Fold this sequence. Notes:
The protein contains ten helices and five strands. The protein is α+β, with helices and mostly antiparallel strands and 223 residues long. The protein folds into two domains: 3-77 and 211-221, Glutaredoxin (3-Layer(aba) Sandwich); 81-207, Glutathione S-transferase Yfyf (Class Pi), Chain A, domain 2 (Up-down Bundle). A five-stranded mixed β-sheet has the order 4-3-1-2-5. Helix 1 links the parallel strand 1 (3-6) and strand 2. The radius of gyration is 17 Å and the shape is globular.
Amino acid sequence: MTTLFHYVHCPFCVRVRMALGLLKTSYKSVVLPYNDEETPLGLTGVKMLPIVETNIDGESKAMNESLDIIKLFDKDNTLKHELLEDEKVRKNINDLLDAIAGPVHNLVMPYWIYTKEFNEESRAYFQAKKEKKRGPFNDLAKRSPEFLDELNKVLNGLENKLQPFYNSSELTILDIMLASHLWGLYVYPEFQFPPYLHNYLQSIKRKCAFDYHQDFWSGYLGD
């Protein structure tokens, strides 16, 4: 049995869930409280999710790094991982994700902590940790027009790159990376999705049989 340890909100965890859904890979879902340090440290020595625990070369092993996890299960290279071997392509997608992550996280973090993923203890832990880097969540909320403007500038021109997927007629690893970073915007009520972007994300959702909270409630995805 493959076990995925993850957070619901984390885009790097979301990309693994999307990919495993597309690949029809069964797994046990374990959503860790954000303040649980013991479990990830015990599995891999670092507090970093996602973590997959699965059979590798006849042994049960745990591994981090979302792209490595996806590649491990994508035996037929459905997602065309060789795209990331091109230095220019890799730089372009990583630059785009970096530009998206800043404003998106500033917008959605104050909302994430009030989803059912968090209890009082994990909420306080998450907020204290993130506010050290980003400042008080109350201030982030007040600055939301600034972050929305920053995000919309990044998204301008993205429509022309979706053909209907990112620079491709087929869904690739680049779409998994992009969609997972944008998905958190669905918890931010003030963001008005351009129709092209909503349609793009919903298309990936269908292909990946992805539901943001489904495995949080059920605890298992598979046959």
